[in-house]
Amino acid sequence: MRYQTRSVKGHDRAANHDFAAAEIHGARGLFVIMDGTSKPGSGQLAQGLAQGVIRAYLSNVAQGADDSSPEQVQQLLNGILVDMHRQLFTNQTGTTSYLIGVASQGLLTVAYEGDCACGMAGNDGNIEWFTPPHCQANWKRDRSHRELALDPARNLVTRSLRATRAPNPDFLRQPAPAGTRFVFATDGFWAELTESQQAAAINEPAGDIAVVSDDVTWIDVRM
User: Which structural domain, as residue segments, surrounds residue 62?
Assistant: First the structure.
């Protein structure tokens, strides 16, 4: 299992409020991507949540928590998110979309709220996204990411981590045999880059990419 990640500030942003973190722990992979909103404190909230989730997950496993089944992974992530929500909002502000992926034993479990996305990529870099974004433009949960990219109402996010609401992530599972390639990305990546620009970005991560209005962040993972 290996990964590459990159984040680029958008030209309409005073600061990059995206954050990505990843950790390979034996045969287990943890991948977290955040998109903090423009509300004060959101960038720090996104970073604190990403780092805190990975730290707490590995700490729980080290203390004997069993994550050998997808149901146990889901239970563990739910508990961590509740704890992180309580800890972070004692002294932080802001809101953030989040997406967490746990890969182990040939399976990827994804937990998310908001408009970060996860997809499967081919060697050519073409990506099939499988996490329906939580936004007003997708209230029926029936539109593709490419359709949503053209609708301004996608920017009205309907679910996220916020102080006034307990975490309530959707969970999805995908087979993740050796050789599978996953991309975790913020909406700046999947909505503001064309499909060819997305493919170029993940296949040439050190190369030039188009700077768009929103922050662009991704993690490219190969099982």
Answer: 2-222
b/e per residue, 60-81, with b = 16+ CB within 10 A? Answer: bbeeebebeebeebbebbeebb
Distance CA(179)–CA(121), nearest Å, equals 11
Q: How many domains does the chain have?
A: 1
Which CA distances in Å does 128 have to 51, 72, 122, 124, 145? 27, 27, 9, 12, 9
pLDDT reported for residue 206: 86
pLDDT tens digit sequence for 32-50: 999 999 999 999 999 999 9
Contacts of 2-5 with C-beta under 8 Å, sequence gap 24+, read 2/221, 2/222, 3/29, 3/31, 3/219, 3/220, 3/221, 3/222, 4/202, 4/205, 4/219, 4/220, 5/217, 5/218, 5/219, 5/220
Domain CATH number, residue 121:
3.60.40.10
